[in-house]
Amino acid sequence: MVILDGGLATHLETLGADLRDELWSAKLLLENPSVIRQAHLDYFAAGAEVAITASYQASIPAFLRRGLTAAEAEDLILLSVHLAAQARDAHGSGAVAASVGPYGAHLANGAEYTGDYDLDEDGLADWHRDRWHILADSEADLLACETIPSYLEARALKRLLAETPGMRAWVSFSCRDGEHISDGTPLRKAAALFTGDPQVMAVGVNCTAPRHMISLISRIEGKPAMVYPNSGETWDPENRRWLGLADPVEFGEAAVGWIAAGSAFVGGCCRTTPEHIRQIRSHLVGPGPV
């Protein structure tokens, strides 16, 4: 069992960051990198064993659009890994997973939850390629392909993985319900893409409501399963507020069920905090210093 971290952007906002920007948490690579390091440290202190970097939205095209050069964009992407590594070293243990966010995150129109794309498989591979190789050549321990909503995008990432034979990865999908990824493909079919791939250490689900986890775990075969759901809250766009209350203790209790159902990795995504991770560790390992 491995405990992942929780919502990076959520905790950055708690630490005072304003993320109302198309770069989301990646804008802090430009403006305030030290707060990213602090967020990673807080998650390690809460019991996380893996830090997922702030590169989810840190694409070359996004930084070019901001007026940076390609070399400056590459430096910022590498900085996201370095900050997580610094936090890991300060904590004394852990791993760094370099986040490979989906093309939909770059579109900034919610497509990471629909898979409604304007690129085919070749186009998706081309779009991801530069950042992929930057991260694969970094000091990261592995690549975290996360919130993937599209079967075609998963196929494109599988092609890129073959271009970097020395790098391991996990692949985690966003899902619309307890059976399908966001574009409607059955999760069982999407997960099967990676069954025989020795570079893929786990296949899973993230940024999906906790209530779907046990059903989704049952559809992952041939690889260790991983789940790091969001808090289960829903956004009220009319009143611009979150509805519901995600109790960290209940989240920790639910994680016991996810492990029992067969998941080997557990953590949190959007709207989860270091306290959610602390509760996961408390329920699965027991209280005490980490």
From TrEMBL:
Alphabetically ordered keywords of this record: Metal-binding, Methyltransferase, Transferase, Zinc
A single GO molecular function term of this UniProt record: S-adenosylmethionine-homocysteine S-methyltransferase activity
Domain of life: Bacteria
Record-listed Zn(2+) binding positions: 207, 269-270
Swiss-Prot/TrEMBL cofactor(s): Zn(2+)
Limits of the Hcy-binding domain: 1-284
Gene3D superfamilies: Homocysteine-binding-like domain
GO biological process entries: methionine biosynthetic process; methylation; S-methylmethionine cycle
PANTHER family named in the record: HOMOCYSTEINE S-METHYLTRANSFERASE-LIKE ISOFORM 1, ZGC:172121
Protein name as catalogued: S-methylmethionine:homocysteine methyltransferase
